[in-house]
Amino acid sequence: MKTVNGWLAKALVLGLVTSTMVLGQGGPYYEEKTFETAMYPALQPSKVWLNIERLNPVGQLRVDMCDAKGAVLFSEWLPKKDAKFHQCFDLSAIGDGVYTFVITDGVQRQERTFKLSTPGIEEQLPKRLITMK
By three-state DSSP, how is residue 9 classified? Predict the structure, then answer.
């Protein structure tokens, strides 16, 4: 019985130490966020807003827009001093497909993927209303 209790106590301590290292701030798997991103459609068709806010300015931010094959269509380095970045992208010149914004500062990397599609033309028939008195 002593052996079972000893093994159980060791397993409990090992589990506690491991979870503290993984979930705690000092653990090897903890990564502090250096920026946050948000992406949303603009009121105008074929336009999208990309917002970036730095939480911890470590280095320069790089913003790339890539197509589904990984080809870079847009690339820009943002200065260290700017805490916020807000830009509206006009996507009317590019074709339908899947695109990704890749934002990185060397420590953290975030990707925002979106799909562009043009709706087909639909024939609309006149509607008839019937009113009863």
Answer: helix
In angstroms, what is the C-alpha Rg of the chain? 26
Whether the predicted pLDDT of 66 surpasses 80: yes
Mean pLDDT of 1-6: 53
Q: Which residue has the tokens 């300015």?
A: 57
Global pTM?
0.65
The DSSP symbol for 118 reads P
Domain spans in the chain, listed from the N-terminal domain onward: 35-116
Q: Which of 101, 95, 93 is nearest to 76 (CA)?
A: 101
Distance between CA atoms of 20 and 64, rounded to whole angstroms? 36
Residues 6+ apart with CB under 8 A from 90: 46, 47
Phi-psi region of 93 (alpha: psi -120 to 50; beta: other; left: phi over 0): alpha
Q: What is the pLDDT of residues 85-98, one digit of tens each?
A: 899 999 889 988 89
For domain 35-116, give the fold.
Immunoglobulin-like (2.60.40)
Q: What does the pLDDT look like over 99-122, one tens digit per residue? A: 999 999 888 899 999 888 887 777
The pair of three-digit structure tokens given for residue 70, joined into one six-digit string: 């990984």
